[in-house]
Structures are given as C-alpha cells and as structure tokens.
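step 3/5: co-fold with zinc ion
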Amino acid sequence: MSTPTAIEIAAQVRSGSQSATAALESSLSDIAERDRELHSFLHLTEDRARAQAAAVDAVVAAGNDPGPLAGVPIALKDNMCTRGAPTTCSSKMLEGWKPPYDATVVSRLEAAGALVVGKTNLDEFAMGSSTENSAFGPTRNPHDPSRVPGGSSGGSAAAVGAGLVPVSLGSDTGGSIRQPASLCGVVGVKPTYGAVSRYGLIAFASSLDQIGPFATTVGDAALVLDAISGHDPLDATSIPAAIPTVSSALTNGVAGKRIGIIDELMGEGIDEDVLRQTELAAEAFRSAGATVERVSIPATIYGLAAYYLIAPAEASSNLARYDGVRYGARVDGGNVEAMNIATRTAGFGDEVKRRIMLGTYALSSGYYDAYYGKAQRVRSLIAAEFATAYEQFDLLLSPTSPSTAFELGAKSDPMALYMCDVCTIPSNLVGHPAMSVPFGSGDDGLPIGVQILAPMLHEPAMFAAAAVLEAAQKGSS
Amino acid sequence: MSELSDGWEMVIGLEVHVELATKSKLFCGCSNSFGDQPNTNVCPTCLGLPGSLPVVNAQAVQYAMTLGRAIGCTVSPSVFARKNYFYPDMPKDYQTTQYDQPTNEDGSLELPDGTVIGIERAHIEEDTGKSTHLGGGGRIHDATATLVDYNRAGVPLVEVVTRPELTSADEARAYVAELRDILIATGVSDARMEEGSMRVDANVSVRPTGDAELRTRCEIKNINSLRSLGRAINYEARRHVALYEAGEAPSQETRHWDEDGGRSTSGRSKEDADDYRYFACPDLPPLAPTPAELAAIDEAMPVLPGRRRSALASAAGVSMAETSLAVERGLDTFALDAIAAGGQGISVMKHVDQNLADGVGVMTAESFAALVALEADGALSATQVKTVLYEMVASGGQPADIAASMGFEAMDNSELESLLDQLIADNPDEWARFAEGDSKVQGFFVGQIMKATQGKADGKIVNQLMSAKAKA
Ligand SMILES: [Zn+2]
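step 4/5: write tokens
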C-alpha cells in the first residue's frame, strides 16, 4: 500500500514540503471513498481536525516546532472522550452524548501535532473480539470484507489496515488491540499498565484497560506511544516515574537476548498456520543473534477463566452509572427504579448484559471467595510464574490470535469468541506490555500476527525485537 | 440513670459521619463548601461522567489519620473499596469507601466522667449528593420527580463507628459532644450537626439487665441535634421494651427519627437489604502511610479535650466534668494561667463558667487572678467584681485601678457600723421588728445602706453586722 507512514507525514509537514491540511484532506477523502464498505468510523471530527491542521500549519509557517506527530491524521476508538464530539462506546446507552472534556491521550496527541480525524467502531463498551457487538453495525476486515477485523478495537485496526489513517488508538483489556492488529495485518501495542493515562478512557475493566497504538510500521507505533505515554496526575494508577522512550530503541536488535516461546500457547486450540508463523518468527530471532527456547508458564491456561470473572466483575460496577439519571439514554418507567431498569434493558446489548450479570454474580456475597477471590489468586499465581520466566528470559513469544480473521457471524457462541483472547489475556492480568507484529499470512492468505511479551516497562526491548521481525518480513517479501 | 423500666438495659452503637474540613472534595478539585447554588461545585469526576477517574485528596487522608490518632486508633495501610448500589444521588451508582482494610481501627474515646467507649473503626468515604423528592409521600418510590444536587457528591467523610458499648442516651450525647470537641480541636471538621457536617446514626437495642447477648437492633437515622439523639434513643429503647413485654419483638430495620412527632417511623427493612458487592476499587492505589507521616501527625497534634480537662481539674481542684465548659470554650489555658498567677481555683472556674461565656477579651490572666484575689479578700462585693470583670474584658487594665476609678474602694466595717447605727436611730420601729425576727425588714436596712454607699458596701457584711447587733 502506498499510504505514507506517520513518520513520513510528520517529516514532510515539519519540513514544510507538505501542509498538515493537505495530509488531513488526503486522509478524509480516503475515508469518504472507502469506509462505506468497511464501517471502521462511527463519526468524523473533521472540523476539529481542520482547525488543528491549520494551527499546525501556522506553527510551521512561524518557524516553530509543530511536534513529533505534526500533521499526522489519527483515529480514536470511540471509547475515548473527545470534548464536544460524540463518544458512544458503540452503545445506544451513550448515543448522542458529547463529553465536556478530552481524554489525556487526546490532549497529548494534539500537543504533539496530531490531527484527530474521527472515532472508530468497537464492540459495545469494548466487550467482544470481532466488532460485531456494536450497536451501530459491524466493521469489516480490509483484507476480506466478508470477515471480521477482530475486536474490540476493530474499527481502529481496520482503519489503519485499510490505509485510511496511518495510525490510530485502541484500548486493550484482554487483547482488544493485539488480536485485531493480528487479524488486520498491522502492528498493535498494549503498553505496561500505567504507562498511558486512562483518564478519559471509558472504563470496561479498570485494572486491565490500557490504551495503545495501531500502526502499519513498528516505527510509527513507537512514535505514537512516545507521544501518549508518561505520568498523568489525573490517573491515580498512572506510573509516577519516567516512562522509557521506545523510538530510540528500534535499532537495538535482539543479539544476545534470551527469548522464550510460551509452551502452553503453542498447542491445542491454535491453528497450524499460526503455529508455523510463530516458529518462523523464532527462527528470525535466532538469525538475528537471539537464543530462543521453550518455556512453560503453566498458570497461563487459567488466564481465560480468571479474566472472565475479574473483567465482568469490574465492568458490572463501572457500567452501573448508566442509569438514565444524568446523561445518555433514558426510558421512562413511572418511578426511579423502573426508569433505571427500563433504561438499562433498552440501552445495553446482549453481550454487555451477559457480562454485567456474570460480574454481579461473581461479586455477590457467598460467591465472592469462590469466584472473584479465586480469580484474583490465579492472577497472582500467573504474575509469579511470569516473574520466574523473566529470570531466564528477556522477552517471550507466542501467537497473538489462535486463527486468522473469521467470517462475520461465524462465532455466534460467546465461548468460541472468548477463546480468541487466550494468548493475549495473560499480559493484561499481570500488567505487562505486549504487542502484535504482522508476520506473514495464513493458508487462507489472511494476515497473521505474532505476539512479543516483555516485563514491566521493558517496551524498548520489545520494540527492538518487533523491529527485527518487521525487517525479516521485508527481507522475505 | 436508666430511662427504661426495671430489668432492661440499653445497648447503643453510634455511627458518626464527619465531613472533613478540606478545601476540595475527596477525589477531585471541586470546592467542598456548604450552601452554594445547586450543581455548581461539580466536574466530570464527581458527576461520575464516563471516562472520569478519582485521585485521592492528600489533605483528606491526613485529616482522617489525624482523627484516627486522636481517638487512639491503629492507623494502617488501607484500601478503597466500592460499595455497589443504585441511587440517583450517587453519580457512579457505587460509593467509594473502605471495607475490610480501613485507615483507622481499634480506638477508644474517654468521656468527661471517665467512661471509655470503644471505637471499632474510622474509615474514609465519599458523600453522596442530595435528593429532593417532589410529590407523592416525599419518598423516592412514590415521588413524581426527584431533584438532585451533586455539590455534596464526593465530599470527604470519615465514618466513626463505636462498638455497641453505650448504655444510655446521656452517654450517647456525651460521646458525640466529646467527638465534636476533638474534631474542632484538631481542625479535622467544623462538626456542625445542624448543617449536616456531623451526622449521627444510632443503633439501638435492649436486653434484660446483665444479659450478654445482643438482641435485634434498629438503626435510627435523621438525627439532627444532640437533643434529638437523646430523645430518639430513649424513644426507640422504650419501643423495644414495650414490644418484648407484649410478647413481640422488634424487627431489624432502618428507622427515621421524626423530631416534631417525637417518634421514629419505619424505613427500609434490613432483611431485603442490598448485597453491596464490595470489592477493592481498581482506580485507586492502596494508602500506605509512612512512619514519618504518622510522626508528623503526632507532632502536630494539639492537646486534646480529655487531656486539657484533666490538667485543669487537677490545677483547679475540681472534677473532670466541672471543667467541660471551660475546655469547650477554649478557656482552659487562660484558667490555668490565672491559677498559676495565684487565682483561687474554684473562683476562677466559677467566673469562667458563669461570666466569661463570650470570652476573655483583652483581659490578662494575671489581672484576672488579681481580681479573684480582691474578691476572696472581701475587698469587693460580688456585684462589683462582675462590673470590674466586664470592664477588664472590654478594655483591659488592673482590677484595683478599675475599682478605684469606679469608686469601689472597699469600705471598712467601722464606717458601715456607724452608718447602721444612724439608720437604727432613725428607724426604731423597723429595727424592733427586725430584732423580733421579722426578716422582711432586713432588705430595707440593706437597701438603705447600699443607697448611702452607692453600692460600695458588701451586702454579706451588712447582714452579719445586723445579726450581731440584733443579738447584742
Ligand atoms: Zn468534582
């Protein structure tokens, strides 16, 4: 695809060889032309983007620094608050609601010169793995419109995969950036928990949610991550220390690094072509001077079960506020309680209701210890096993998604969809960074991503390894 | 004194919600002030807007720990928890509070009479907004509309929970008064019950005197003054006794105190109480006070009312209870200084309690001690002492000078005696009646002498002289 990268656009805008306005109009016309079929965007923020582009151009004209993302069009998953612009979480519950404030990531992107062009589709409240659970219709995979883009950040993944924007932001609670990145053939990063502010990210599961970038290249992902990461006093879970930059680490390579392939994610339930590409990625690391061995992290197999108790439990509380009282949907019901019930019955889709009920049950007195309590103990166990693994290895490797993109409607059983996240969930449970890097394609010709995992705040080493795989891909194509 | 019929005793536990005197709310920067226009002190966080996050107010945590140390609690690392239930004045439909790991645990509070009340915990939580239900019966279920003011939503509270150890309405009132004094002394809260910055819920049950078991309790809400607290407890305890004596039993429930009606009315039954599904709030890291922070809190701790009362009681030679008013008025240091300057303890306390309700103005402790000495010597009458005292409060100065400038020189008895002799000579009939025991005419003689001396005479001495002369 001939779409320029974010690094190229920023360089042109910074040097004055292309205006931010021109970069924006090019992106907007691509979206107008090609998004009808994909439906990756829910709403565009053209006015805001045009004003921002004009401002960037004025800064350049004045001879000042317009920022590292100058003139770069970027799309945001529609669960990040944008002042005065719709922010729906793909839910009827928030249809028409316009936040009075910007998420911290939005302010940081604009401070870096980026142009927010629009808000992308997602599974309702980020609950799903296919973007089919959107109240406003599904998004389609840019590589095959009969297939899903993955989810829940499917819109942001598809928009980048289709070249409508060079970069976008998603949120990842159990794999919602990495799995759609894999299915759409793009780079997707879940940073260390607390590296990127969650202020203004509409919560699904607060202890797991993390914002991260999608990009067509590892370098672009690094550029965006560096712009949005760092301590935010508005988020008490934000890490109160300097976050290492990744852009400067891209050429560090993997020579001498010890990389472990997670045994438990290399067997049952993972398609053959995905296993093959993961082994090929291991070969690429070996060729670049790393040692690669199998490592067993037995508790990872309990990750899915723990996740589907913890995430719904937090969600049941986070989503209580959608009660029809202050904002969003309201369905009258005679008295307050009846109004609450009618509003939530009409406003939420089935998957959201399913998870609220699951989480409510898991936290109920008499069940708390058996479900939520035990899930938290599993979480601690997984963290302990990862810590042990990282005594022997610098990085870990696994598939991102068990399969390539599947057909719309193919996974109507919720459990089948939940299995999509088996490889990605452990990183969220332990708060570690992980990213998916495109690495070849499956027997069906669709993209496959492999996942690189790293210890807390070891994003520089993770990005350096991702750059190695990216270079190996270019060499082989 | 028991308010109950023989054979029954009360078991009372109190839950006191205290609004902390911080500038801003518990989890956002909005102003924590009372009485502003509805919904003006609000932001995305305290309105619970999607995407908003809480950041804990360090001042609120410090106040909470200060209160904890003041009431002898163990201050521990603590965790915020979410208490989940739906209510329109609670913006997130959960309350951020503390559950199994509160900031303060296991304290006690000593009442002026020496009784020690055990405190189970004192945890930090956010306040809710305020609902006004229109139409119907004024309750949420039958209201035609509900108006909500979120100014109070997110205001920092500490909930101080006693063990069920209080045994009378008087004790409950004394406990709340003492807690209020500590809150004011430490600056943690302005503790105004009438403005709702201190709210008391009482858990009341009764049992046969001497029994160890706890019987069914009712939680009484909507208590707005110390007076209401006493009335509500006595009403509720008597209601329980009446039920038991009729062969029935109270059911566990929340009840609302109706001050005008002097009774409590049934609220929600606790049997269908919500399951609050408490869990640790994932948006807030645990609080972990460092030894240095705790040491700084102890360092800055003012001398608390209990210690102040005992210091004053031993200096003045009175009981702890008799020092309450002086300590409450903040006049204990002044009283101690006056006693140290030679003022007689009981006299000092008498003036502090009876004549200095509005403070000591510009009067120094030394000049006050000198006044008390003049009074003890009999150099000034009680009326004159009061007059001089008020002048000293208003304008300062030394009591002897003020007394002199007012013409209050003490009169010697010989002068009084000759005045009295003259009066007896002028009024022989009246004197005869007095001598025969008619005390009604005593006032006549005293009045005449006062008139002649322009009030300088000491009435007590005139009386003594008259008695002596009548017997002679
Ligand atoms: Zn606020």
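step 5/5: annotate
Chain A has a mean pLDDT of 97.
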